[in-house]
Write a structure and sequence with these properties.
The structure is a single chain. The chain has 669 residues and is an alpha+beta fold. Among the domains are: 161 residues, Flavocytochrome C3, Chain A, domain 1; 126 residues, Fumarate reductase/succinate dehydrogenase flavoprotein-like, C-terminal domain (Methane Monooxygenase Hydroxylase, Chain G, domain 1, Up-down Bundle), CATH 1.20.58.100. It is 38% helix and 14% strand. It contains 17 helices and 19 strands. Helix 14 packs parallel to helix 16 and helix 15 runs antiparallel to helix 16. The longest helix has 27 residues. The radius of gyration is 25 Å and the shape is globular. The protein starts with 11 loop residues before the first helix and ends in a 14-residue tail after the last strand.
Length: 669
């Protein structure tokens, strides 16, 4: 199979404009003749369904939640990037493009990233028009804050709930189209297979999660916008329902899966507190604007803190190691996520961790300096040039509450500690997946008519995503890319007519799904689904996590293959197929996670370099930074399914070419 990325010719800055100008169109009177299925209603799916419905297409939208408002996009807290340069601090489309390529450790497709930067400003205008309540400065202008991996302020935000507010904006646009009858919403439905007719995507098989009914749905094109696969690790910041099933099912039907080993470990999550925990909680990266990250300089202080004999507030300033500021003075606490995560791991591995859990893993995120700084500024602004210490502290806390109040409340409810008074405890956790289904410049997979948007595709972030870029990519794909590129494909479908669900292809796909369900329900095993999911998670975190090496990856591949065998032999799924059955849902999803986990380890093993979130311990420089091999690994690794034995998957390479960017070692010092 030869990969054709369909990147347009011409200068980088003109590619998207010229490409749009030459794409085929579907006339408004022909759009009602065409059906489109959208799987997933997070930011990418909801914005795509709303846009395509407004254009006049017949859209069927599917989500496994009870409402699109429950999509995991709501969990994105800190903000959304856009190159508007409102702060007049040197930002530009090129700067956003460059930061994104560099942040991804030079492993992203240049043309896609430049397009993302180009349309970023339009996203903000669109969302403001929808009524998204972005934070504003005193004069009424939209406010910005900094995020990791940049030296400008380009992140637009709505307190600490940006994702939720953006999703409500997209949901309102979607709801309008539902009300007009252009979008039909299928809540509590899960896609379990894709249907191909004559090689083209022509529909899906979905399960009604309430009744258990297996349904056939046809369309002229299918959009997969089902999010990422972080829950392969069991413990992650993802919603517990987040899964890879839609992406994995299309992979098994011919869509290549690209860069599965590129996983982002987010540096600011609440540490694991026990073995029975089922989910981790993200504390927004925006907090790194105001918090300083540290551990004690002395191991005996760290040991005393873990033993409960010492409080962090009792550690003198000179006895604190602000290790990010020490190692990366140019960016300090705002280095990219992969850099910050590895630095935290290094300190904890060296014995300086502060959390009294099984692993002693945790560092502090301290707001005391910001409270004093902002408190003094607030006092001066009020005309008080000689404020007392108490006044400064009170005003500083008030400033923090206005910026991050809901995040501080959430932290206190989970940990029973007041972050205004004592530093937050944080540690890296699995958060986002840069890998995903391979797509070309038009966001089309290797299955004609099957498009993939948002986190479900691989396209824009390389080996590491910069903070606040996930929301940007999801909305860019849904509002400003897919409406053009999918229309180009559908222009040849005007005369196709209604797609029948009575064809042999639909019958075969439905039979596959029913057979899989039947096998699980009749298995009579002795172990729960979670038993196997946790085992998979431990293998993944310990051997395909923040640090990877050849021996560990080979062990992981063998262990996951054995786990797959044990899973099918001994998993027990109670209940029946014709009812609400959460254990059955989990079993179907974990079956896909197990296969994906093996592929992730295979991908990490073949990539003999360190880049972004993929850190091979054998490939690091003298200071412990990533050591890329641009001569041999400057490619997208896209895997082709070759049957039930995942070890037989075939690797295809898309060479990455850089016209505008000069590749260099990443330096945030």
């Amino acid at each position: 199979m030869k990969l054709d990325s369909k990147i347009p010719a011409g200068p980088l800055k003109d590619k998207w404009t010229d490409h749009k100008n030459h794409l085929k169109l579907v006339a408004p009177n022909n759009r009602p003749k065409i059906d489109i299925i959208v799987v997933g209603t997070g930011l990418a799916g909801a914005s795509a369904a709303a846009s395509l419905g407004e254009m006049g297409y017949n859209v069927k939208a599917f989500c496994f939640q009870d409402s699109p408002r429950r999509a995991h996009s709501i969990a994105a807290q800190g903000g959304i990037n856009a190159a508007k340069n409102y702060q007049n601090d040197g930002d530009s489309v090129y700067r956003l493009f460059y930061d994104t390529i560099k942040g991804g450790d030079y492993r992203a497709r240049e043309a896609n990233v430049h397009r993302l930067a180009e349309v970023s400003g339009n996203i903000i205008d669109q969302c403001v028009a929808q009524g998204v309540p972005f934070a504003r400065e005193y004069g009424g202008m939209l406010d910005n804050r900094s995020f990791g991996g940049t030296q400008v302020q380009r992140t637009f935000y709505a307190a600490g709930q940006t994702g939720q507010q953006l999703l409500l904006g997209a949901y309102s646009a979607l709801s309008r189209q539902i009300g007009l009858g252009r979008v039909k919403m299928y809540n509590r439905h899960e896609m379990l297979d894709i249907v191909k007719v004559d090689g083209k995507a022509r529909g899906i098989i979905a399960r009604n999660l309430i009744t258990g009914e297996i349904e056939r749905h046809s369309a002229h094109a299918v959009v997969i916008a089902s999010g990422g696969y972080g829950n392969v690790y069991f413990l992650s910041t993802n919603a517990m329902g987040s899964n890879v099933t839609a992406g994995w099912k299309i992979h098994k039907q011919g869509a290549l899966f690209a860069n599965p080993c590129y996983v982002q470990i987010h540096p600011t999550c609440i540490p694991v507190h026990g073995t029975n925990q089922s989910k981790l909680t993200l504390m927004s990266e925006s907090l790194r604007n105001s918090g300083r990250i540290w551990v004690p300089k002395k191991k005996e202080d760290a040991e005393a803190i873990r033993a409960g004999k010492l409080k962090p507030t009792q550690i003198a300033e000179e006895d604190r190691d602000y290790y990010l500021e020490r190692r990366y003075p140019a960016f300090g606490n705002l280095v990219p996520r992969d850099v910050a995560s590895r630095a935290a791991k290094e300190r904890c591995d060296a014995g300086y961790g502060i959390e009294a859990n099984d692993t002693n893993e945790g560092v502090y995120l301290d707001f005391s300096t910001e409270i004093q700084t902002k408190g003094k500024q607030a006092a001066y602004a009020k005309g008080n040039h000689n404020p007392t210490a108490e006044e400064i502290t009170a005003l500083g806390k008030q400033w923090l509450e206005e910026k991050y109040g809901n995040l501080f409340t959430m932290y206190q409810k989970i940990t029973d500690e007041n972050p205004y008074e004592t530093p937050m405890k944080i540690y890296p956790a699995v958060h986002y997946t840069m890998g995903g289904v391979w797509v070309d410049y038009n966001l089309q997979s290797t299955i004609p008519g099957c498009f993939v948007a948002g986190e479900a595709n691989f396209s824009d972030h390389g080996a590491n995503r910069l903070g606040a870029s996930a929301l940007m990519q999801g909305l860019a794909d849904g509002y400003f890319v897919l409406p053009y590129t999918i229309s180009n494909y559908l222009a040849d479908e005007i005369r196709t007519g209604k797609i029948s669900t009575d064809s042999p292809e639909f019958a075969e796909a439905e039979a596959r799904v029913k057979d899989s369900i039947s096998k699980f329900l009749n298995n009579n095993g002795s172990k729960s689904v979670d038993y196997f999911h946790k085992k998979l998670g431990l293998i993944m975190w310990n051997k395909v996590g923040m640090g990877r090496n050849e021996a560990g990856l080979k062990e992981a591949i063998a262990e996951i293959a054995q786990l797959k065998e044990d899973f099918y032999k001994d998993v027990y799924v109670p209940g029946s197929a014709d009812e609400l059955n959460p254990e059955l849902e989990k079993a179907l999803r974990v079956a896909d996670f197990i296969e994906l986990g093996q592929l992730m380890a295979m991908d990490a093993l073949q990539r003999k370099e360190s880049c972004g979130g993929h850190f091979r311990e054998e490939y690091q420089d003298a200071e412990g930074e990533t050591l890329r091999d641009d001569e041999n690994f400057k490619f997208v690794g896209a895997w082709e399914y070759k049957g039930d034995d995942i070890s037989k998957e075939e690797l295809h390479k898309e060479e990455l070419k850089y016209e505008e960017i000069k590749i260099a070692a990443r330096n945030y010092k």
